[in-house]
Amino acid sequence: MIGVIGDGSREAEDQDGEGIQWLADAGGEVDGVIFARGIPPEELARRMGADPAAATGPISGTEIWGLDIEVYRPGDDGDGVIRVGETDGWSFAIEYGDSTGGELLTEIARGGVEVVHFRPMPDQPPALLDYARDGAVLCGFGLGEERWRWGQEPDLLVPELVAANVLEADGVTRCAPGAVPYPSAWQRTLGVVGRRFGLRLPRAVLGELRLPAYVVRGRPGLELP
Fold it and tell me: Which domain of life is it from (predicted)?
C-alpha cells in the first residue's frame, strides 16, 4: 500500500506548516527528494530504475538506516534506494545512497509529467533544484546561487524569487544577507518552489512514517536487522 499524505485541499504552507522549506536543513538525512505530477508512485519508481513488483513492505525513515546500503563500491555501482508515497496530487520519492533521480530527470518527466528535484548536496554544495516537464529541464539553479540558472526557461521563477527577497529586482543580484532576517535565503527559495507548484511534505517522511521502498541501483540488502 502506497502512503498517501494530504487530500489536496490545502495550498503549500510556509516554514511554520508542512511545506518543503524544512528540507533546507535535511542534508545528511536524505540524498534527494523527487516530486512527480502525472504518474502514480509505482510508475515513478519504475522510471527511476526499480522493478515495480519488487517493493518492500512499508519501512520508516529511521529504519532505512539499518539496511545494508553501500553508497560507494569501487569498480561497480553504489546502492540506490527510494521510499515512495503520494501527497496532494504529487508522487514523491525520498532518495538514499547512489540514487538515479538526477541522471534520469528527463526520463521521469516524459509524457507531460512535471518533476521537481531537490538534492541537498551537503558534501559538495550548493544544494540543487531542478524543474522538468514533458521530457525537458525547464529551469534549475543552486540554492544560494540563484543568479546562475539553466534550462529551457531559466528565468521561470525569477519574479517569485524577487518577491521573496531572494534576488534583487534585476533578477541577478542576491539580496544582502540579513536584509530579511527570517526565514533563511535557502528556506525562502524552497518556499517559492513549494508555493509555485503546490508542494507539501511532512517531516515525518524522514522519521516514523512508513513507506514502501525500492532498489533503483546496485544490490543493497533490504532485510531489516
Answer: Bacteria
174 in a structural domain: no
Q: Max alpha carbon distance in the chain (Å)?
A: 54
Asked, for residue 204, whether it belongs to a domain, the answer is yes
Instruction: Work out how many domains the chain is built from and give that number.
Output: 1
**Nearest-5° Cα angle at 44, 13 to 142:** 55
Query: Using CA atoms, how far apart are residues 78 and 217, in angstroms rounded to an integer?
Result: 7
Kindly state whether residue 23 falls inside one of the protein's structural domains: yes
For the chain, where are the alpha helices, taking DSSP H only? 41-47, 105-108, 158-163, 185-197
DSSP letters of 142-192?
A: ETTEEEEEESSSTTTTHHHHHHTTSB-TTSSSBPPTTSS-SS-HHHHHHHH
The grid coordinates of residue 116 equal 521537481
Q: Tell me how far the alpha carbon of residue 166 is from its chain's centroid.
A: 20
Q: Is the whole-model pTM more than 0.85?
A: yes
Distance, in Å, from the CA atom of 43 to the CA atom of 50, rounded to the nearest integer, reads 9
pLDDT along the chain (225 residues), means of 10: 50 59 88 97 97 91 86 80 96 94 96 97 91 98 95 97 94 79 79 96 94 92 69
Query: Has residue 39 been placed in a domain?
Result: yes
Place of cell 513492505: 57
